[in-house]
Amino acid sequence: MLVRSISRIDDYKMEYSVQLTFREQWMDERLKFNDYNGKMKYLTLTEANRVWMPDLFFSNEKEGHFHNIIMPNVYIRIFPNGLVLYSIRISLTLSCPMNLKLYPLDRQTCSLRMVSYGWTTDDLVFLWKEGDPVQVVKNLHLPRFTLEKFLTDYCNSKTNTGEYSCLKVDLLFKREFSYYLIQIYIPCCMLVIVSWVSFWLDQSAVPARVSLGVTTLLTMATQTSGINASLPPVSYTKAIDVWTGVCLTFVFGALLEFALVNYASRSDTHRDDMSKKCDLERTVSMDVGDYEDGPNSFNMVRSNSTIIVVLLVLHQVSCTRDDKQGYRYGYQSYPRPSRPSPGGRQFGENYGWAYHRGEGYWYHPESMWRWRPNNGWRQYPRRNNNNHNYNNNYNYH
User: Fold this and answer.
1) What family does this chain come from, according to its entry (predicted)?
2) pLDDT value at 328 more than 60
3) Cα–Cα distances in Å, from 364 out to 127, 242, 296, 349, 389?
4) In this structure, are residues 74 and 48 in contact, taking their beta carbons and an 8 Å threshold?
5) 38-60 residue pLDDT tens
6) How far apart are CA 212 and CA 217, in angstroms?
7) Residues 8, 2: Cα–Cα separation, whole Å
8) How far apart are CA 243 and CA 254, in angstroms?
9) Of 26, 123, 2, which Cα lies nearest the Cα of 78?
10) Is pTM beyond 0.85 here?
């Protein structure tokens, strides 16, 4: 057997196409003739139906045809001792079951099986020729594979009708990695690196980072779909699936990281703004509660009127007032108790409710008395308007 060419190895259909010159030889004593003292070496026939032939067929064949250009590529030689040599050129498409778990770093073994169709081993036995029964042309070229070696063996099969003789040739192919390195691995690495560029962009550049992340994610998904389109749907995980899955995870992680960072940044900014607004409101409330009576008090209140107006606007936006429960600032609630008893002091109705540094209190601005739930009534000294300092002499009641 001479392997002339292997034109195609199809991963999707799991088949390969081969062109070979097939030869078989057997002994038929009925065809002995006189060679006239060695003058006639052999007889040549071109019609195979004129002699008896073994009923050999290729068991894993899908398609096949003979070659008839310019003349039928077949001959039969009959030697004087009754030996018959049959030779023909044929092209075959043979099935080749593949295991793609290591794709594209795999090796595949494709077989060529020759079996007797009707004659059992009691009548017909196939034997490999001693020496070198299978030859391969030296310039054999495959687009994505390399033929590492080939082995010959026997594969007799037993059925209900008997045992049939069988011969097989195992062709071991190694897949070339350079093609997949250029077409799959390098583009996937480039897509992952491009998705990481978003880490160096400003977090406020939302359109640029979102566009970059979504584009690389869709490109990676398209690349994965293209790879799987050239392979049969199998029930196990391939090596290329692990690679594309890891790359897709990195690209998706880069996009998810931007979403989380953007959300956290906006939350921190909003929390800081709320804290500043409510701190301003509490500061102004203390200024209103602690101003001193005197000829300059009206001027001070008038100067703070603008701040109070701004405070009221910010208060309605950032804080919530509940007359029954008091003020609510941020995530904490400061309860407003019922109006305390003056304890014999005639304050009338001219005192109100305020809070400072997370603690609420009743106050009377004219006499500078304050009432807190923990300390009771407490009189604050009047503030010096020049240095805005308090002395430490407090009276508790």
Assistant:
1) Belongs to the ligand-gated ion channel (TC 1.A.9) family. Glutamate-gated chloride channel (TC 1.A.9.4) subfamily.
2) no
3) 119, 74, 18, 9, 20
4) yes
5) 888 899 887 888 889 999 999 99
6) 9
7) 17
8) 17
9) 26
10) no
